[in-house]
Specification:
Layout: H1 14-17, E1 44-49, E2 54-57, E3 68-72, H2 77-82, H3 85-111, H4 121-152, H5 155-163, H6 166-179, H7 184-191, H8 199-210, H9 233-246, H10 252-286, E4 299-303
Antiparallel strand pairs: 1-2, 3-4
Helix pairs in contact: 3-4, 3-10, 4-7, 4-10, 6-10, 8-9, 9-10
Length: 320
């Protein structure tokens, strides 16, 4: 059978993809290069390390455009195979961690976009959002352990710290500062996120919840014909009080706000670091001149039909 012809896609310069605003906020050619150089379509900020040709990647600049710009950065598998096992594994695992974090962040936003009209669903919807926060806490902590053990703890990490741009280095410093002291994410990950509490911990949480009169209405099971529409609320009452106890907060609302605030901070730092590490990896192994500003972008697309992040709501109850 005759093989299908492969479509040829021209390589693309960044300034051909992303229009430059009046304030010159998009980096698009300030880094010295010869006329035949091409750059990736990743969004960059206005500042660039001119000496080392390292632009800073800032996703939030996309908010100014009415459409989402996407550029494909090819990673030929033969070249990827030539990379050392340790370096390749770190690149792939960090990318997987970033995918998990962004997915969970979107689900958290979807779950909290609306207050249900059905009274019975209102507290369950809130509990659903908090469970997603706990999953995010676990994913964030696992991503940090990956960086700690396979980046900071090996010579490869020292090499890449010199390759990171300003944003990547700041994000890494922020992560080291946060995880270098006692913090909520460590506490929750070891007891309530990705790990079930020990009997002693759950019993302590039960005692705390038992003494909270404001939770009296929630000692219930909400059962339906299908398990997908059933919720064990009494279990969640105990878990959230255990988390409150573990974080040494004075009330449930303060505990939830602190957990959400820390998770949001660490998620931002992790995704910024991973994005810059990925750019440095691609620049090292796949660029024309071994610098971030010379990464080849092969395909671009404009997503014009993407809904607003605040448009969708993730309910608890679904018709089957």
């Amino acid at each position: 059978m005759r093989a299908a012809a492969r479509r040829t896609i021209p390589q693309t310069r960044l300034d051909e993809i992303l229009p430059r605003p009046a304030d010159d906020a998009w980096y698009a050619g300030d880094c010295p290069r010869s006329p035949d150089r091409v750059v990736s379509g990743m969004p960059l900020s206005s500042r660039a390390d001119e000496e080392n040709c390292r632009p800073e990647y800032r996703i939030d600049r996309l908010k100014e455009n009415p459409m989402i710009r996407v550029v494909q950065i090819p990673l030929p598998k033969d070249q990827l195979r030539a990379v050392s096992k340790e370096e390749r594994s770190l690149f792939l695992l960090l990318g997987y961690a970033a995918n998990q974090i962004t997915m969970l962040q979107k689900l958290m936003i979807f779950s909290s976009n609306k207050t249900p009209s059905e009274t019975v669903e209102q507290p369950i919807s809130g509990a659903q959002t908090q469970m997603l926060v706990r999953l995010l806490v676990g994913a964030l902590h696992e991503a940090w352990l990956l960086i700690q053990k396979r980046f900071l703890g090996v010579p490869l990490g020292r090499e890449y710290q010199d390759r990171l741009n300003h944003t990547g280095r700041e994000a890494l410093d922020g992560l080291k500062k946060y995880f270098g002291t006692s913090n909520i994410l460590n506490t929750l990950r070891n007891n309530y996120a990705y790990h079930h509490p020990y009997d002693e911990d759950i019993d302590d949480a039960f005692i705390v919840a038992f003494g909270d009169d404001q939770s009296d209405d929630y000692w219930s099971l909400y059962l339906s014909e299908s398990s997908i529409n059933s919720f064990h609320f009494a279990s969640d009452v105990v878990i959230v009080h255990g988390m409150m106890n573990a974080t040494k907060a004075t009330d449930l609302l303060a505990a939830q706000e602190r957990i959400t605030r820390d998770a949001s901070l660490v998620a931002k730092l992790l995704t910024e670091f991973i994005l810059d590490f990925s750019a440095a990896f691609v620049a090292k192994h796949f660029s024309v001149g071994n610098t971030q500003c010379e990464i080849l972008g092969r395909e671009q697309a404009s997503v014009k039909t993407a809904p607003s992040l605040l448009e969708f709501w993730l309910p608890f109850y679904f018709e089957l």
